[in-house]
Structure formats: structure tokens, C-alpha cells
Amino acid sequence: MKQFLYTTVTGYFLQDELATVAETFDFTAANFGLLERDYEADALTPNCRADMTQWQRFDSEVRTTLNREQSSEEQTKYKLLFLGRHGQGVHNVAERRYGTAEWDRYWAAQDGDSTAHWVDAHLTDLGIQQAQAVNAFWKHQIAHAKTPAPESYYTSPLRRCLATANHTFANLDLSSLPPTPLPPTPSGSSTAKEPQYKPVVKELLREVNGVHTCDRRSSRSTLAAEFPNFTFEAGFAEHDELWMPDHRETNDEIDRRMKRLLDDIFGSDACVEFRLPTGAVIPVLVKATVV
Length: 291
Prior knowledge:
By secondary structure, the chain is α/β, with parallel strands linked by helices. The protein has helices at 48-51, 54-65, 90-98, 100-105, 125-145, 159-169, 220-226, 251-268, and strands spanning 4-8, 76-84, 153-155, 180-181, 192-193, 199-201, 231-232, 281-290. α5 runs parallel beside α6 (159-169). The longest helix has 21 residues, at 125-145.
């Protein structure tokens, strides 16, 4: 598997800027945070400011100007990642009830209490509403801002994340979107990828893992029955083999796991920490170079 060096490309989104306060940032009021600015690719399209939205112009910038850096061996590639956090889960409510200190000390390692069960926690009603609000925002963005819909969908194996993805994307009408051009085949013919929601479950795609029972996923067969529209990546085990009851991942361990995940995603298909509230989504432009 190819190894990549990853860097975030700044200067395109509000969330790139140190002055943006994550706790008060509202992506739905800020066009996903996309900055109003000129692009090198604007020169390729006369009257682009009159005929194209900011998102259409940014999409052109990524597909033409930035990706001109790609060599014939594809040593460098750019991808726009829409990073979304799950909606509010039962465990989030419990942590707020007990306080973070007491949650981390005792309750997070339990299966639940007298009011709730939080192993592989379900979404709350509010969590569902948060995901549905993002769905409505995506519909608006696609119709009016012409924001390109994601071309690939990846999700954590945790129930709250699968449910959030479904409430967010499952009923979006992508039929009106133009196909995404794909690189020419060796014979020189070109093809296009029709937009469609086909989520893939990735075992490594998690936040912090271990000790907290809310982060122990259900069996593959349980998840497959509950979410039949999801595809499980090759080698996805029946039971959670990553979660450990006596060890909570360190930041270094999380970095290594996420590096493996990104290498897998980028191979087959110095940034500021930006904490997301439940249900929030932000785009991040990432440059990956083969090392």
C-alpha cells in the first residue's frame, strides 16, 4: 500500500484561520466556511463571477489548477474531505448529566445506568434532528450554492455514525448533479462517475477508542441487519477487535491509526485543532504526496 505525506491546504475556508472560533462557528450560516476570493482557475472561464457560484469556481480550482501538480505517476493529489461528527448520542447526554470528570472516572466504562444503555450508543431524538438539519442544509447547498456532493462516502463502524450518515445523505436527490469526470483509461477513453450515496464502513475510522463502552461497536451481522444499505470494507471482522477494556488510545496511537486509514482511502480511491459539535460538518482540503 502506498504511503502518503498529508498537509492541509489553507486559505480557502474560514475554519483554516486562527481567528475563527470553533465553539461559535456555524457552517450552515457560512456556506460551509468557503471564503469569497479569486482563484487562478477563474481565468479559464470568462464571466465566471456572473455565471458560476463560489463553490463551482472552487471546484474548478481544485480539479484544474491544483491538480495540475499531479504527475503521470500521481505522486501528488488533492481531495476535499467533508468531515462530519455524529449527532448527539445517548452517551453524550449521560456525560453531561454526570460531568466529564465523573464520566471519565467511572461511568464511561459501564454499559449504562438506570436510565440508558450506551454500548455502541444510539442517537437521541436531538441527534436525529441534528442530522436531518444537515440534510436540509445539503439540499439547499446543492440546489442554490451548487456545492458538489461527495463522490465517496466513508463512515465509522459505530451505530451513531452510521445512523447520522443515513439521516444526512440517504434521501438527497443527486440525480440532477452532473457526473464527475474520471481520468482517461489507458486506451484514452474517458468515463464519468454518477453521483450516488453508497457508504463504506471503515473499521479504523473512529475518534478515541478503548475503555469507554460507547466506543465498542456492535457485531458486523447486527450492523448489517440494521443498516442494509452500507458496504463493509474487505476484512471487516464480525466482532470489534480494536476496542480494549483497559486501554484508552493516546494521541500518538490515534495519529498512527488515522494515517493508516488515510493511506488506505487515498491509495485506493501542521493543522489547527477544530472541534466539532455533535452533528456539525466542515470541509477540509488535503494534499497527499507519495513518499
